Amino acid sequence: MGFTESGARLLLVLLWAAVGWSSAETGGAAEITVLLLNHARVSRDVISQSEAEATRIFSASGIHLRWVDCSQTPVCHHVPGANEFVLSIVADGHTSSELVYGVAFLGPGGEGKYADIFLRRVEIAAKESGFSVQRLLGAVAAHELGHLLLGTHAHSYEGIMCPVWKKAVLQRMEMGSLLFTKDESLTMKGRLAGEPMGRFPAFTKASARGLIP
Q1: Is the pLDDT of residue 26 over 50?
Q2: How many CA atoms lie within 13 A of 85 on its CB side?
Q3: What is the C-alpha separation between 45 and 37, in angstroms, rounded?
Q4: Rounded to two decimals, what is the model's pTM?
Q5: From CA 83, how far away is CA 93, in angstroms rounded?
Q6: Rounded-to-integer distance, Cα 176 and Cα 42, Å
Q7: CB-based burial, 66-94: b 16+ in 10 Å, e otherwise
Q8: CB contact burial 111-137 (16+ within 10 A = b; e otherwise)
Q9: Which ranges of 91-132 does DSSP label H, i.e. alpha helix?
Q10: How high is the pLDDT of residue 19?
Q11: Are 57 and 24 in contact (CB under 8 A)?
């Protein structure tokens, strides 16, 4: 996912990655552990604020994020458990487009444990748009973790999983109201409770792009 500026226009494209959906409702609190690999050596202050933003977004869905700084502990040296996910912040990525700011790695059945965020692109995007890099980094983290929890074809027409973030969407991000939808929240909680993944309807290629005036 990501965006860049061309002339007077800002183009934001969120990662065209996988994700799926279920309508089963689950109750009770849910928690996931995020094993953070800070390969890009982002400052602790920026990391803390970005973690807080992603945590706030997930909390609105009834899901608590527990962060583990893998640079400070050897506990990360294991295969991720049932509700553990590995999020790596890397300096840059090798993708076909500079418009991609993160990637979630999913298997054939939509399952996944690993996601990357490309710091350089996020920093450039934040600078060009005038938005907070901490908040944008946190939103990107939430988006990519959403892919890992939702499965195949997770992009939505609204909320944090929207594939194209136009001006109004970015403004919602700055105001703190860019969140998961109710159905996405229920699906993620169902996934964490051990329910099988469903599927979101597929989106057309055109829905993955959009110009910001």
Answers
A1: no
A2: 26
A3: 15
A4: 0.80
A5: 26
A6: 22
A7: ebbbbeeeeebeeeeeebbbbbbbbeebe
A8: ebbbbbbbbebbbbbbeebebbbbbbb
A9: 119-129
A10: 35
A11: no
- State the residue for tokens 């996912």: 1
Query: What Cα–Cα distance (Å) separates residue 150 from each residue in 8, 74, 144, 184?
Result: 35, 28, 10, 7
Q: How far apart are CA 171 and CA 164, in angstroms?
A: 13
Q: How far apart are CA 182 and CA 126, in angstroms?
A: 28
102-105 vs 30-38, strand pairing mode:
unpaired
Supply the pLDDT for residue 149.
95
By C-alpha distance, which of 162, 62, 143 is closest to 135?
143
How far is the C-alpha of 198 from the C-alpha of 202, rounded, in Å? Answer: 12
Over the chain, what is the mean pLDDT? Answer: 80
Q: How far apart are CA 168 and CA 185, in angstroms?
A: 22
Cα 25 to the chain's mean position, in Å? Answer: 22
Q: How far apart are CA 172 and CA 73, in angstroms?
A: 35
Range 60-70 average pLDDT: 96
Which of 121, 128, 135 is CA-nearest to residue 173?
Answer: 135
CA distance 5 to 93: 18
Quote the strand ranges of the chain, DSSP E: 2-6, 9-13, 30-38, 63-69, 84-90, 102-105, 114-118, 211-212
Looking at per-residue confidence, does 179 or 129 come out higher? 179
3-state secondary structure (DSSP) of residue 110: coil
Residue found by looking up tokens 């094993």 in the block: 35
